[in-house]
Amino acid sequence: MTDVEQEVGAVIVGAGRSQRMGNVDKIFAPLAGQPVLLRVLQPFVECPSIDRIVVVLNGRNYDEGKELIVAQNWEKEVAVCIGGRRRQDSVLKGLKQLGVCDYVVIHDGARPLVTEDLIERGLKAVKETGAAIAAIPATDTIKLAHKEMITLWTLPRESLWMVQTPQFFQYDLLMKAYQEENEDVTDDAQLIELIGGKVKLYTGAYDNIKITTPADMAIAETLLKRQKA
Question: Beta 131-137 vs 34-35: how paired, if at all?
Fold first, then answer.
């Protein structure tokens, strides 16, 4: 349990279709001998600030995922539920399965290099505004362009951040955002922005990559070895 009896829950979203991974469901792909899903879950299970966890899967990978999680016999509560059509629908199902708590952390099931340090720093940052997200400064020059691939102008790199997960929220605030907004969004922080909330950025990690293609698996293997070195 966290300080002042504040409960923190985690929702791990692994309900995607892995379209760019060929015939492989990326959350079960082996990464240094262990499925990606278990690599993702381990830091949350081991983090003392996290009280309970919900993993959101799709209908096709639900049985395999649940069996894999149950086999770990973790002492911490790790529940499993089936997600929805959109990512945000899956997160909402996870939030409802999780139940009321003080803070919730949302994390992609395809970011297996998350660390306890990233989690703990996010939990400190969220107490400033009620919403905090891991992000890293953009390192490349970024252009805004027409659909015809003609550039309009160059965006100021010093104010651009590449957003990651984990993302942290007061549970009630995030549920309020889900109740008031239903337009398509790319992450949960966008919902908070839409209802006028303030989202705090805290420094993520360049190693905290999201696995999307088979090439990302090779990169993750290398980064994982470097983490353990």
Answer: unpaired
Task: Say which CATH topology domain 3-228 has.
Answer: Spore Coat Polysaccharide Biosynthesis Protein SpsA; Chain A (3.90.550)
pLDDT digits (tens, 9 = 90+) for 164-204: 999 999 999 999 999 999 999 999 999 999 999 999 999 99
Outline where the chain has alpha helix (H).
36-46, 62-70, 87-98, 116-129, 171-180, 188-194, 214-228
Tell me the per-residue pLDDT of 17-67, one tens digit each, with 9 for 90 and over.
Answer: 655 555 668 999 999 999 999 999 999 999 999 999 999 999 999 999 999
What is the sign of the dihedral through the CA atoms of 46, 48, 51 and 55? negative
CB 29 within 8 A of CB 211: yes
Whole-model pTM?
0.94
Q: Are 14 and 5 in contact (CB under 8 A)?
A: no
> Max Cα separation, the chain?
55
